[in-house]
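User: I'm curious whether this sequence folds into something compact or stays loose and floppy. Could you predict its structure so I can see for myself?
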Amino acid sequence: MSDKIDLIEDKVNNMDIDDEQSVDDDSGDENNYSLEDLNSIRDSIEHMSKVNQIEILKILNKNNCIINENKYGIHINLTGLSCSIIEELKKFISYVTIQEQTLNQVEKLKENYKNKYFTKDNKEISCNNTKKDKDVKKSKLQY
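Assistant: Here's the prediction. I'll summarize afterward.
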């Protein structure tokens, strides 16, 4: 037991620590984001669907972040997260935003096609036009 303590003391004594570095800062990845940036990230996460919020929790859990849960929900202190974790969150938020925009565009296009080609009024109009076209072709052939 005393050998282990001596070994730990030797390691601590032999550590080169600059005055500007703290012992707690093991990653060198300090959070330099402004409160506006962090609030923007929080708002984006709060407005996401439950599925995407669960993915955010998986990212935080993977990085061993402190997550507090109570009856009102799950709370995370974003100011305590490292830059790399916040960058990963921003990347996921950007991915979700682009995905939603793409899906909305596809849905609008699908709705336009549906309205243009599959509504009852358009079918009747196209059938009538087709009938008229056939009649015109027949009349041209008779001459």
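Summary: Residues 83-117 form the longest helix (35 residues). The beta strands are 68-70, 73-75.
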